[in-house]
Amino acid sequence: MKIGITCYPLIGGSGILATALGSELARRGHEVHFFSSSKPVRLDTSQPRVFFHEVVVNEYSLFRYPDYTLPLAVKMARVAREERLDIFHVHYAVPHATAAYLAVQMLGGRASGAPKIVTTLHGTDTTLLGQDPSYREAIEHALSESEAITTVSESLRVETLSTFNLKRPVEVIANFFIPSAVLREATEVRRELGVSLDDFLVVHTSNVRPPKRIDLLLRVFAAAQTSRSMRLLILAGGSFSAHASLLCDLNLQDHVIVKENVLEVEEYLAAADAGLYTSESESFGLSILETLFHAKPVVAFRVGGIPEVVIDARSGFLHPFGEIEPMAASLQKLADAPALAKRMGEEGRRDAEMRFSADRIVPRYEALYERPGSL
Ligand code: GMT
Hints:
It contains 15 helices and 13 strands. By secondary structure, it is of the alpha/beta class. It folds into 2 domains: 2-176 and 357-370, Glycogen Phosphorylase B (Rossmann fold); 186-355, Glycogen Phosphorylase B (Rossmann fold, 3-Layer(aba) Sandwich). The strands form 2 sheets. Strands 3-2-1-4-5-6-7 form a 7-stranded parallel sheet, sandwiched between helices. A 6-stranded parallel sheet has the order 10-9-8-11-12-13, sandwiched between helices. The structure holds ligand GMT.
C-alpha cells in the first residue's frame, strides 16, 4: 500500500512511534510518505520506500500567528494526488486529523478515491486539548471523519469515549518498540558519566514537560537512601533549566546527572539498573517501554496506561500518584537486592517482547488499512 504518515518531528512519543511504524511498514514492502514541519528526529530517509515531505510555513505579515494546518493539508492533498496514496495515517489529532480531512475534501472526498483517514490518538490530544473548548469540537469533527480511530492504551480509549461524542468505535493498538543494537559497553557509558559499576544507576528519560512531574522525580530520588550509592541519570528531551533550582535545594547536584537533547538514549538505558517515572498522566509511556526492553525494572506511579505496560511486582513497582515514600522504598529495595532487580528486568523484557513487539503490533495497523471503508 501507499501510506502517508503525518506526525510531529520532535522528541516526543507520538513522533517516535509514527517514525518507527513508517520504517517498519516500509521494511514490509509498503511505500511510506512522511509529512511534517521538519524531518522527524529518528527518521532515516535512506531506507528504501521511505519519503519525507517537508511542510513549509510562510510567515505572512498579516497573520499574527503562523498557520500550519492549511499548508499541511495542501501538501498532503498534493502528494496523495501525485503518488496515489491509499491511506492518511495521522498521529496526534491536532491539527493532523483536521488537515487530513481538509486534504480529502480538496481531493473530492472519499467517493472520488481520496485516501482513507486513520487517526491515532496519543494522549494529550484527548486528555488536554480534548478538554479545551477551543479545540474539542474540531477534534470531535475530525475523529468523526476518520475511517478508523485508535488509541495507544485501553485507559486512553476510555478517556476518549468519555471526552468526545463519537459514533464510531475506538480501537486500542498499543505502542511497540524495536531496540537497536547498543554499540557502547555499559562500562564505557558509565565511565563517561562518572558512575562506578558499584553505583545503582537509576534512569529517567522524558521531554521533562510539566506532566512528567520532574519535581516528584527529584523528591523521590532524594528520599531514597540506601546502603548502596545511588545516582540518577536524567535524559531530558528539552531544556532542564526550569528544574535546576530544585535540584540544588534538594542538595542533589553530586548525585544527579542531566543530559539534554540526547537522541541515542538506548545505550544509557542499557547501562542503567532501573527506571524511575513520576508522570501525573501518561496514556502509555513509550519511554517506560524502552526501559523495559532494555531489561530494567521500572518504578512509576499507577496513572493512565502505565499499569497496562508495567506489571506491578513483576516488571517493576507501581504506587498511587504522589506517594513519594513508597516509591523511594521501592527504589531502595531494588538497589539493595541486585538479583531481584535483574530478575524483574528480565521479566519485563520478556513481557515487553511478547506484548509490544513490532511483529505483534504492526500487522494490526496493516489490517486496519486494508479493512473496507465505512464512510
Ligand atoms: O506529552 C508527551 O509525553 C508527548 C506525547 C506525544 O504525543 O508525543 O506523548 C504521548 O504519546 C506517547 C506515544 O504514544 C505516549 O507514550 C505518552 O504516554 C503520551 N503522553 C501523555 O499521555 C502525557
